[in-house]
């Protein structure tokens, strides 16, 4: 799956207690809200959810509004004691999380460390 | 029949049946025959009368020319010429006259009434002219969002095309009536008039948006003096007052004046004036909305715009800011420089970026700048400042955050000592005099979202020719390049900075901004702010010790 260069799409997979959101494209000023809404829907539709995973393998770009939407989702998941994880973060996203000092909020699961 | 000199009675009876006036006149211009229709049309016309006396001048002259051409053709034994038809007015009607030459050299004139066609053609031409005018007027009026210019343009256009004098009046502001007056062919003048709109019948109503009063109800003699511009000499013969309808509220009124020497405004013209007024009103209303908004923005901006910088306590500091939209002159990026309270105290330099853009971001920016200013007494303790700022910004409503860099800047001899603390902000860069570029590894969390934050400071020393650059991600995230979709990126920024070795701070800012603009071309971008801190070249020490001159300039 090759994401279009300057748009944002995602697919959702829900299995028992885990929801997977596969993100692709640019997470920015124009698309941040869309992701927050989708994450909200996952949380309300599946009250038994224990973990929300955001697969960022196909994410091309993330700006400060994108970071803000990730922080919003983190707040919502924390409030419901759902664990939030970022998977397969591309190097640019890792650097962004590192610079902004919020990496520890989105604990990286084993899989992405193996991938490195 | 061709051989007879005069026409036969049968022929003359046939002419009588013709639906058009027909006249036969000989070489001398004497009328030989005419039918009843021609007799009715031309008063006094009868056989024996001269065309010069009974026909209009244009027809008499055309007859003489026709005779002349026929004679010349006969001398040259050429075929009789084909004579051109002529046209002109007879009384209130318009006629086309078609000549035919008889064999004895007389000319028969067949007159065809084309008054209706002429009228239709004229009406069509007028209508086309008006449509063109209205379209052009809309273009011209909408080209300017400046209320004053829009009023002046409306007055000028109306004076030129609709009247001799036009006056645009907008609703009372501060007890005065703003007016723009124009005389056809002259520049409009603007004035604020202290006057009661009800001085002129229909004006008060028009300013409230009521339908216009018919022109014939307004007595030109009742016009108050302030209405008539100074450049207009003649007496006013007729007046039209029409509202300029705006978006919901009336945008003003338009007064049209004509001198006594011109025809009064007819009903058709009044309707047309209203069509024009509708367009002018829309343009004026848009201009006013815009100027109100821009006044609000300017009021906000006065406090939000970054300060202009210069040398602070012997350190060169230069800043540059380019907001995301040209229309939004304020945004989410900011910088401030607070000189130390005494010459020994370091100055505090702040550059930051609030997530988002536009007015919302600008408001948060203002809050951060004010809070930091209040925290200046503890400017030495960056961590404490950031913790307190974070606490002040925390809210459950949103996760709008800020990233920033604090820099304590102190001049020491000819060097500048920097202590830098980043709160989730991109690393500051330092370009050395030899062109090498270093990151300053200060590290911390962003501000305004997390209940607890951490921040680690780093120190560096700038020697003459070195520059420290603080920038916002608007630069690294600027999309452009050959294909228009590539990010400017950190690597390109480092390269650009490497080319700025040994430049004064102002030149570094200009150069980086220029390179980023070239990269962007006209593409959209986020707010972009940057700040350069340099240790200036100085011969300060050479004044103390003459032998060391050249040590810093070589």
CATH top level class name of chain A? Alpha Beta
Number of strands of chain B: 24
Query: What string, H for helix and E for strand, traces the elements of chain A in order?
Result: EEHEHEHH
Q: What assembly state would you assign to the polypeptide chains in this entry?
A: heterodimer
Q: State the major sheet of chain A.
A: 4 strands, mixed
Q: What is the domain total for the residues of chain B?
A: 3
The portion of residues forming beta strands of chain B comes to: 25-35%
What pair of chains forms the biggest interface? A-B, 18 and 28 residues
The CATH topology of chain A comes to: Transcription Regulator spoIIAA
Protein name (chain B): Serine phosphatase RsbU (Regulator of sigma subunit)
InterPro entries (chain B): Bact_Sigma-Reg, GAF, GAF-like_dom_sf, PAS-like_dom_sf, PPM-type-like_dom_sf, PPM-type_phosphatase-like_dom
Domain PPM-type phosphatase (chain B): 312-535
Keywords (chain B): Hydrolase
What is the topological layout?
The complex is a heterodimer of chains A (116) and B (554).
Chain A (H helix, E strand, L loop, with lengths): L7 E8 L2 E10 L4 H14 L5 E12 L1 H16 L3 E5 L3 H9 L10 H6 L1
Parallel strand pairs in A: 2-3, 3-4
Antiparallel strand pairs in A: 1-2
Chain B lengths: L8 H9 L4 E4 L5 E4 L1 H6 L9 H4 L2 H19 L10 E5 L2 E9 L5 E7 L1 H28 L4 H15 L3 E5 L7 E7 L5 E5 L9 H5 L28 E9 L7 E8 L7 H38 L6 E2 L2 E8 L10 E6 L8 E8 L3 H17 L7 H12 L8 E11 L2 E9 L5 E3 L5 E3 L3 E2 L10 E8 L4 E5 L1 H4 L2 E2 L5 E2 L1 H10 L6 H16 L7 E7 L5 H5 L10
Antiparallel strand pairs in B: 1-2, 1-5, 3-4, 4-5, 6-7, 6-10, 7-8, 9-10, 11-12, 12-24, 13-14, 14-15, 15-16, 16-20, 17-18, 17-21, 19-20, 21-24, 22-23
């Amino acid at each position: 799956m090759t994401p279009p260069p300057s748009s944002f799409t995602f697919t959702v997979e829900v299995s028992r207690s885990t929801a997977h959101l596969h993100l692709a494209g640019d997470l920015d000023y124009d698309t941040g809200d869309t992701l927050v809404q989708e994450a909200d829907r996952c949380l309300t539709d599946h009250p038994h959810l224990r973990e929300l995973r955001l697969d960022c393998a196909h994410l091309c770009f993330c700006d400060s509004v994108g970071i803000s939407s990730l922080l919003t989702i983190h707040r919502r998941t924390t409030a419901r004691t759902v664990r939030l994880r970022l998977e397969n973060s591309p190097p640019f996203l890792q650097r962004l999380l590192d610079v902004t000092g919020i990496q520890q909020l989105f604990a990286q699961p084993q899989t992405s460390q193996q991938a490195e | 029949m061709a051989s007879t000199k005069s026409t036969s009675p049968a022929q003359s009876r046939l002419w009588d049946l013709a639906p058009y006036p027909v006249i036969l006149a000989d070489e001398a211009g004497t009328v030989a025959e005419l039918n009843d229709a021609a007799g009715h049309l031309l008063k006094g016309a009868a056989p024996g009368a001269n065309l010069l006396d009974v026909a209009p001048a244009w027809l008499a002259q055309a007859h003489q020319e026709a005779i002349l051409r026929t004679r010349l053709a006969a001398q040259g034994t050429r075929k009789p010429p084909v004579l051109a038809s002529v046209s002109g007015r007879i009384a209130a009607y318009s006629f086309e006259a078609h000549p035919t030459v008889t064999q004895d050299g007389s000319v028969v004139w067949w007159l065809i009434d084309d008054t209706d066609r002429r009228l239709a053609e004229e009406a069509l031409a007028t209508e086309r002219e008006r449509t063109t005018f209205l379209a052009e007027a809309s273009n011209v009026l909408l080209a300017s969002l400046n209320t004053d210019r829009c009023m002046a343009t409306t007055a000028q256009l109306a004076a030129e095309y609709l009247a001799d004098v036009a006056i645009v009046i907008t609703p009372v502001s501060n007890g005065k009536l703003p007016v723009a007056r124009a005389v056809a062919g002259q520049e409009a003048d603007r004035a604020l008039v202290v006057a009661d709109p009800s001085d002129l019948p229909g004006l008060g109503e028009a300013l409230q948006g009521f339908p216009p009063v018919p022109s014939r109800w307004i007595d030109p003699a009742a016009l108050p003096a302030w209405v008539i511009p100074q450049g207009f000499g003649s007496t006013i013969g007729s007046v039209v007052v029409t509202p300029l309808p705006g978006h919901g509220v009336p945008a003003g009124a338009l007064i049209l004046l004509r001198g006594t020497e011109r025809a009064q405004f007819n009903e058709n013209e009044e309707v047309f004036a209203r069509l024009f007024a509708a367009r002018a009103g829309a343009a004026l209303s848009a201009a006013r909305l815009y100027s109100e908004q821009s006044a609000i923005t300017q009021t906000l901006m006065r406090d939000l715009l970054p300060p202009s910088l210069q040398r602070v306590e012997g350190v060169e500091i230069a800043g540059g800011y380019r907001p995301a939209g040209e229309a939004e002159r304020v945004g989410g990026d900011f910088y401030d420089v607070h000189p130390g309270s005494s010459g020994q105290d370091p100055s505090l330099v702040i550059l930051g970026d609030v997530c988002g853009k536009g007015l919302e971001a600008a408001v948060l920016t203002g809050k951060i700048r004010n809070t930091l200013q209040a925290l200046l007494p503890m400017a030495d303790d960056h961590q404490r400042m950031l913790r307190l700022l974070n606490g002040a910004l925390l809210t459950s409503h949103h996760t709008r955050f800020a990233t920033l860099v604090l820099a304590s800047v102190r001049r020491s001899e000819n060097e500048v000592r920097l202590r830098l603390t980043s709160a989730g902000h991109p690393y500051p860069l330092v370009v050395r005099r030899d062109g090498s570029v270093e990151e300053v590894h200060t590290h911390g969390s962003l501000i305004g979202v997390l209940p607890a934050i951490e921040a680690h400071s780093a120190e560096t020393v700038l020697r003459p020719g070195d520059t420290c650059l603080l920038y916002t991600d608007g630069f690294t995230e600027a999309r452009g390049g050959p294909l228009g979709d590539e990010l400017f990126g950190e690597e390109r920024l480092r390269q650009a900075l490497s080319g700025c070795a040994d430049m004064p701070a102002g030149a570094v800012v200009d150069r980086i901004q220029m390179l980023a603009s070239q990269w962007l071309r006209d593409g959209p971008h986020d707010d972009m702010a940057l700040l350069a801190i340099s240790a200036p070249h100085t011969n300060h020490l050479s004044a103390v010790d003459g032998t060391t001159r050249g040590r810093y300039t070589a």
